[in-house]
Write a structure and sequence with these properties.
The chain is 76% helix and 0% strand. By secondary structure, the protein is mainly α. It is rod-shaped, with a radius of gyration of 24 Å.
Length: 58
């Protein structure tokens, strides 16, 4: 069995975890301004449509 350098193993594991975290953040936060604007407009339309369907039972 070949000896293992534990420092290299620890650093390789840390790099893999950092890469996984970076990929998750890229999915979560990595949107263009156009995508953010489109999503905000869709949310606004949805909110107005929902408000328009409310009943006025006062």
């Amino acid at each position: 069995m070949k000896p293992v350098n534990l420092n290299q193993f620890r650093k390789r594991k840390a790099r893999a975890e950092d890469k996984a975290r970076a990929d998750a953040n890229a999915v979560k936060f990595g949107r263009s301004k156009a995508e953010k604007t489109r999503d905000a407009a869709e949310a606004d339309i949805t909110a107005r449509r929902l408000d328009g369907h409310q009943r006025d039972d006062e």
